[in-house]
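FORM 12-B: Structure-to-Sequence Request
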């Protein structure tokens, strides 16, 4: 059995460790795509060399209009949400102020009620 294993190269020859990433990805190609926009958006990906050009061309966005429209929608939603948060905090502060005034008025009326009770006894 040992004689048979010695004949197999993977059991006898030690391979040096890999030191370069290119050794691991030698059969791939790096493709960078400028998707345009303001600021510009770049996408980088790795494909095997056997990847057809049609697959790569499908990845390119033919029009940035959808992306821009979605970005504008999200920005307007963000602005609306921020405005609602500010208005909500202002309403909360106003309600807390009214609560303090109401509590002070209740305390004042209690004192007056106690004073009236004391006079009646």
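FORM 12-B RESPONSE
SEQUENCE OUT:
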């Amino acid at each position: 059995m040992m004689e048979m294993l010695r004949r197999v190269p993977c059991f006898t020859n030690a391979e040096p460790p890999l030191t370069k990433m290119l050794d691991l990805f030698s059969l791939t190609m790096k493709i960078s795509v400028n998707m345009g926009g303001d600021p510009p958006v770049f996408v980088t990906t790795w494909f095997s060399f056997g990847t057809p050009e049609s697959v790569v061309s499908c990845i390119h966005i033919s029009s940035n209009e959808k992306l821009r429209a979605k970005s504008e929608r999200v920005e307007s939603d963000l602005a609306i949400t921020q405005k609602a948060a500010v208005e909500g905090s202002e309403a909360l502060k106003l309600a807390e102020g009214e609560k303090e005034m109401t509590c002070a008025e209740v305390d004042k009326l209690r004192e007056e009620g106690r004073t009236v009770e004391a006079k009646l006894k």
